[in-house]
């Protein structure tokens, strides 16, 4: 008998902690809710795999690549398997500092053959992966394909070059001081048809090193497959889908990371009650399997017709502590509940929330988390039951029915969050019982103007025995909801969907531990994207595929490459690259935006929790309504600017002012202040303002700014071309400095 203990919960689907983005929100309507994946530790006495065996396997896959890591440098983690996959995994990792640079690697092997399942490696030197890069994307693709060949059973894998998993045009800035990484996805195929939800992702740095791989595939040794020759014509299935296609009017919540605000769009969505059509028998694929009946969408049915009273108005800290002790208690002599702290904070809606931090003490170790209570209403807004990880949960208990579980979920909401529920509907999507987590997952969508809201819901999970597993309220403060009267007619939206719909053929395996059958399924793709919607006020697709993968190049004799790079990294904003005048002077506001975006992840506008709550105003003329407010405040945090009465946004930046900004980014301003120790070898050195002399000397010596015919030209304008060259050089200097600061 294998000895084990539960290590924790892992979600099999990625979720954004700061809010639900509209495309992902829609995607969740077409697939299952994220499932709990429990990692279960295997006793060291139950496995014969050693650290030396893992190191040998690593060196076989990567000959001579990790010779600088000794056996003592490696650490072997606890062996484990998952509740939904009994194959044992083994972890090997290392972390070293070489020439002041952090180098680390983390590798997971699985099964008796120690197959590499995933890994991530951070090499010591990534300078060649910064612009200008050593390897192009096409060259990196060849490297990825060569690496794929080293992995077992990958002969039938094909590169995914379609757009159905498009990133929807998200344009977060990546700090230019971070390496350029190319990512390639390969799907397993059978008779040339790809498998759904299975792939290998390989990451290659622009210096040619493979630094990451994640494999989400299953063994097909016992698999059976539908006969490809028996599939119906795609045109026949497409006609079937079009004839039965329905569109749903919804509000969709969109979260803007650069403003910290949530807004609502009125959209028409494709049907979410089916995922595809069986390619052989024409049955509809739903979350509950295949059906011959055309799936019908459920209508909105509010949980309460009138507002209910809050659970406890203006609850006090002491009352929250008592609630926690009662709500989190555990009936066991071996486990002790410990309330570590109760803190107040403001959430994204400006509401005061009590955050209760607690743990369960097992004597020799503990496990903890937190749950949240709304101060004004005394209601629980975030909770996850940890006790399921260590208490006997009755694995052999027959789960209650779906209807009974739904009734339980509604009862819990009435008990713990009553004042919210009149704004929410019963689930409009199918719910299934997840046998691995032994839970039902329910999503109660918000209702506004009689329409369900995508991306704003109350989520509840119910255990097999009917107990509350989790509760989460995602209630965004949105002031403006587009009028339903502004929506185009549903028939017009349906016609657009019918025109834009295409089908993709894939093999899909239905849930079930002993199910090895792969069904041929035609899955709808809308305007080239798997999950897409139509703006109900304009009739336009929300997301469009850009066939031109790269923005056009900017031509310039000395800075064309740098300007094009900044443009394609969404740092430089140019409407007409062909006619862009790169020799024009750049304003302080525009230059600051380019510098900040080049060193930031893109969500720099607010410094408080959830990207909000920053009430600072460093300049009288730059308030929160100013379009550059976030940029300016981030520049202050970075040390580029110092608070003052005014910031001359529209004044042209001079070369000596740019020198100061560049040096401040690198935190060298204290050295620059000692201007008397520097010798300026420029013919016009005397024209440099003494206040900028040290900055000019350092920026020149570090190669961040070039002289012009032995002159610094301190008071001359900075052009876009000048700024592009300096920005790229600054990014490399920031990396070499190894500051670890990515704002």
Q: How would you classify the helix and strand content by structural class? A: alpha+beta
Low-pLDDT stretches are 1-36, 163-171, 605-613
| β-sheet strand percentage | 25-35%
Q: Report mean pLDDT, rounded to a whole number.
A: 86
Number of beta strands = 30
Amino- and carboxy-terminal Cα gap: 50 Å
| Total individual domains | 4
Helix proportion: 10-25%
Morphology: globular
Count of helical segments?
Answer: 14
Rg calculated over all Cα atoms? 29 Å
Biggest pleated-sheet summary: 11 strands, antiparallel
Q: Could you provide a short overview of the structure?
A:
With 743 residues, this protein is of the alpha+beta class. The chain is globular and about 85 Å long.
Task: Describe the model.
The protein has 743 residues and is α+β, with helices and mostly antiparallel strands. It has four domains: 4-217, no CATH class; 228-299 and 483-535, no CATH class; 317-473, no CATH class; 560-737, no CATH class. Helices cover 21% and strands 26% of the residues. It is built from 14 helices and 30 strands. The strands form four sheets. Strands 1, 2, 3, 4, 5, 6, 7, 8, 9, 12 and 13 form an eleven-stranded antiparallel beta sheet that branches. Helix 9 (588-598) crosses helix 10 and helix 11 crosses helix 13 (690-701). It is globular and about 85 Å long. The relative contact order is 0.11. Mean pLDDT is 86; it is low at 1-36, 163-171 and 605-613.
């Amino acid at each position: 008998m294998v000895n084990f203990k539960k290590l924790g919960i892992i979600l099999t689907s990625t979720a954004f902690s700061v809010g639900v983005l509209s495309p992902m929100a829609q995607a969740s309507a077409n697939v299952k809710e994220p499932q709990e994946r429990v990692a279960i530790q295997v006793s060291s006495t139950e496995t014969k795999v050693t650290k030396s065996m893992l190191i040998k396997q690593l060196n076989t896959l990567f000959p001579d690549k990790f010779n600088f890591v000794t056996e003592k440098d490696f650490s072997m983690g606890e062996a484990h398997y998952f509740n939904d996959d009994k194959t044992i995994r083994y972890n090997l990792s290392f972390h070293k500092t070489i020439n002041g640079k952090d180098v680390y690697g983390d590798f997971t092997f699985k099964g008796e053959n120690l197959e590499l399942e995933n890994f991530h490696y951070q090499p010591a030197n990534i300078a060649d992966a910064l612009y200008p890069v050593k390897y192009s994307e096409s060259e990196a693709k060849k490297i990825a394909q060569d690496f794929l060949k080293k992995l077992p059973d990958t002969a039938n894998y094909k590169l995914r070059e379609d757009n159905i998993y498009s990133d929807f045009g998200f344009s977060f800035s990546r700090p230019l001081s971070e390496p350029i990484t190319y990512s390639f996805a390969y799907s397993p195929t059978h008779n040339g048809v790809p498998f759904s939800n299975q792939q290998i992702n390989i990451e290659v740095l622009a210096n040619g090193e493979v630094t990451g791989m994640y494999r989400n595939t299953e063994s097909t040794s016992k698999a059976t497959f539908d006969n490809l020759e028996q599939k119906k014509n795609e045109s026949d299935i497409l006609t079937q889908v079009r004839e039965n296609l329905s569109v749903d009017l919804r509000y969709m919540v969109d979260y803007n990371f650069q403003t910290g605000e949530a807004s609502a769009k009125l959209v028409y969505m494709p049907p979410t009650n089916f995922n595809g059509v069986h390619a052989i028998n024409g049955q509809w694929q739903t979350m509950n399997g295949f059906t011959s009946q055309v799936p019908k969408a459920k209508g909105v049915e509010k949980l309460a017709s009138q507002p209910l009273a809050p659970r406890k108005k203006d609850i006090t800290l002491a009352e929250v502590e008592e609630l926690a002790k009662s709500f989190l208690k555990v009936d066991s002599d071996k486990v002790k509940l410990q309330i570590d702290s109760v803190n107040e904070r403001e959430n994204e809606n400006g509401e005061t929330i009590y955050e209760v931090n607690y743990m369960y003490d097992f004597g020799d170790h503990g496990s903890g988390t937190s749950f949240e209570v709304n101060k004004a209403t005394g209601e629980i807004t975030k909770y996850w039951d940890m006790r399921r990880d260590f208490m006997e949960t009755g694995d052999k208990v027959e789960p209650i029915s779906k209807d009974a579980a739904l009734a339980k979920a509604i009862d819990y909401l009435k008990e713990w969050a009553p004042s919210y529920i009149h704004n929410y509907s019963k689930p409009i999507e199918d719910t299934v019982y997840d046998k691995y987590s032994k839970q039902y997952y329910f999503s109660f969508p918000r209702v506004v103007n009689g329409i369900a809201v995508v991306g704003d819901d109350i989520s509840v999970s119910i255990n097999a025995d009917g107990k509350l597993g989790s509760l989460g309220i995602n209630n965004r403060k949105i002031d403006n909801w587009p009028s339903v009267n502004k929506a185009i007619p549903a028939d017009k939206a349906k016609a657009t969907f019918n025109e834009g719909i295409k089908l993709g053929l894939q093999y899909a395996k239905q849930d079930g531990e002993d199910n090895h059958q792969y069904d041929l399924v035609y899955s709808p793709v809308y305007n080239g994207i798997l999950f897409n919607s139509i703006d109900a006020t304009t009739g336009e697709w929300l997301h469009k595929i850009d066939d031109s993968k790269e923005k056009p190049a900017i031509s310039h004799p000395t800075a064309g490459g740098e300007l094009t790079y900044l443009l394609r990294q969404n740092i430089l904003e140019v409407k007409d690259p062909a006619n862009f005048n790169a020799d024009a002077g750049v304003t302080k506001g525009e230059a600051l935006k380019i510098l900040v975006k080049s060193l930031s992840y893109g969500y720099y506008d607010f410094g408080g929790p959830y990207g909000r709550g920053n009430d600072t105003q460093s300049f009288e003329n730059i308030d929160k309504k100013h379009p550059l407010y976030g940029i300016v405040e981030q520049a202050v945090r970075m040390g580029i600017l110092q608070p003052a009465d005014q910031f001359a946004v529209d004044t042209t930046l001079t070369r000596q002012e740019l020198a100061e900004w560049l040096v401040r980014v690198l935190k060298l301003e204290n050295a620059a202040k000692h201007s008397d120790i520097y010798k300026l070898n420029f013919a016009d050195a005397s024209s440099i303002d003494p206040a900028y002399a040290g900055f000019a000397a350092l920026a020149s010596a570090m190669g961040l700014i070039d002289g012009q015919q032995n002159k610094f030209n301190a008071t001359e304008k900075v052009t876009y071309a000048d700024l592009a060259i300096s920005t790229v050089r600054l990014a490399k200097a920031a990396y070499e400095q190894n500051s670890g600061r990515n704002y």
